[in-house]
């Protein structure tokens, strides 16, 4: 796999993936031919394939916070959410195997390399996994405009926050698998936040709740 | 000016700008030639130039919250921050005249059209304007890793939140013009949030503070 860009290459070197080769200082078009993207910022690297985490390992910690993403197909959005999760110190991100962006070099770039330091797990069926998470003592919150105010719940203990694609929201079976639906206040004329900014608002709200309780 | 994309064209039609012509249903390459971008999603429109707001008008309300951006040069980041500000119901966004992205069609697209409904003001000198904001009874918070925890201040009344470019942060004179520097908790290995996710975390933190006080 060829990752590209300054942050992605640096973080791959600092993270667990083996880096077998780095190209730097070549003409732009040569780098673009190697990595397949014009966004290489003058550097790309050959690295081992990304290793996904075991989804059950994410909820071992008794105060783990995990983000689950329901069919987020845009690599930029997936990368941006992974960056939020890593910076906030979450236990990991869960994505479904199908109809979801996977961890491609474009996602590495959009995450500013954060994906090298964050467990990302894939599950066959997201609704089923949310059921298992509940059995593992997690409380599952789905982000939805129909939800209760997001500041209301008690966010202690294991928490999973589920976010849907911005145009479609959560699928009905996924929404039904949540313990509670929560909503960010929307006070404007446009309909919704981007999924990464919604993730940031929710995740930092949860961290803030925990610091105050 | 030619704006492009489904949301930007729809929001231009709903907002104050005059829309003089809409192109839809043409071949993709023809639309791309008209608007100059491949991201048109099958639609573009000719609209009146964007009208910037008077910066002083943003602080009229006694509980106004304004985001000020110190030299954010990436149009995607500026658009994404404007979208957060509009969805959260803020009074507006302030940008400096120089070394900042302006409201171009690319910014309209990145804001999902939110810029049509949000006052954006340009100022000659951001540090000077922050001084004027303080004289107008606003409390000015700069986002900085060196700051106090962002959950500590009392965010009632007029508030200005200043965000810098993610690689450079606030310029020294801008940081010195703030009443207080505030920091989001950073618990990961990568250095910082993207400016739009930082804006979302801070702005929703402030709204949450106000709802609880």
SSE blueprint:
The structure is a homodimer of 213-residue chains.
Chain A: E1 2-4, H1 6-14, E2 19-24, H2 28-35, E3 43-47, E4 65-70, H3 75-87, E5 92-96, H4 105-110, E6 120-123, H5 126-135, E7 138-149, E8 158-164, H6 172-176, E9 180-183, H7 195-212
Parallel strand pairs in A: 4-5, 4-8, 5-6, 7-8, 7-9
Antiparallel strand pairs in A: 1-3, 2-3
Helix pairs in contact in A: 3-7
Task: Compose a concise summary of this entry.
With 213 residues, the first copy, chain A, is of the alpha/beta class. The first copy, chain A, has helices at residues 6-14, 28-35, 75-87, 105-110, 126-135, 172-176, 195-212; strands spanning 2-4, 19-24, 43-47, 65-70, 92-96, 120-123, 138-149, 158-164, 180-183. At the A-B interface, helix 1, helix 3 and helix 7 of A face helix 1, helix 3 and helix 7 of B.
Task: Spell out the key features of this protein.
homodimer; 213 residues; alpha/beta; six-stranded parallel beta sheet; three-stranded antiparallel beta sheet; 7 helices; 9 strands; globular
Shape of chain A: globular
First-residue to last-residue Cα separation of chain A = 44 Å
> Which range best describes the helical content of chain A: under 10%, 10-25%, 25-40%, 40-55%, 55-70% or over 70%?
25-40%
Structural class of chain A: alpha/beta
Point out poorly predicted stretches of chain A. none
Q: Mean of the pLDDT scores of chain A?
A: 96
**Main pleated sheet of chain A:** 6 strands, parallel
Order of helices and strands of chain A: EHEHEEHEHEHEEHEH
Total beta strand runs of chain A:
9
Which protein chains are joined by the largest interface, and how many residues does each one contribute?
A-B, 42 and 42 residues
Computed Rg of chain A: 18 Å
Oligomer: homodimer
Number of DSSP helices of chain A? 7
Strand content of chain A: 15-25%
Strand order in the largest sheet of chain A? 6-5-4-8-7-9
């Amino acid at each position: 796999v060829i990752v590209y860009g300054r942050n992605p290459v640096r973080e791959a070197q600092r993270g667990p993936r083996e880096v077998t080769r780095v190209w730097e200082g070549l003409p732009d078009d040569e780098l673009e031919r190697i990595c397949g993207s014009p966004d290489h910022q003058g550097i790309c690297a050959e690295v081992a394939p990304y290793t996904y985490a075991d989804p059950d390992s994410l909820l071992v910690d008794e105060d783990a916070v995990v983000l689950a993403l329901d069919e987020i197909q845009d690599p930029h959005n997936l990368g941006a959410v992974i960056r939020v999760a890593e910076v906030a110190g979450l236990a990991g991100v869960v994505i479904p195997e199908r109809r979801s962006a996977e961890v491609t070099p474009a996602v590495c770039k959009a995450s500013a390399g954060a994906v090298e330091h964050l467990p990302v797990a894939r599950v066959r069926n997201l609704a089923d996994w949310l059921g298992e998470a509940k059995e593992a003592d997690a409380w599952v919150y789905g982000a939805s405009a129909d939800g209760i105010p997001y500041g209301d719940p008690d966010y202690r203990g294991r928490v999973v926050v589920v976010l849907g694609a911005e145009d479609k929201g959560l699928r009905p079976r996924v929404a039904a698998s949540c313990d509670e639906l929560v909503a960010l206040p929307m006070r404007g004329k446009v309909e919704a936040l981007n999924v990464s900014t919604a993730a940031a608002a929710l995740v930092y709200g949860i961290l803030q709740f925990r610091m105050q309780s």
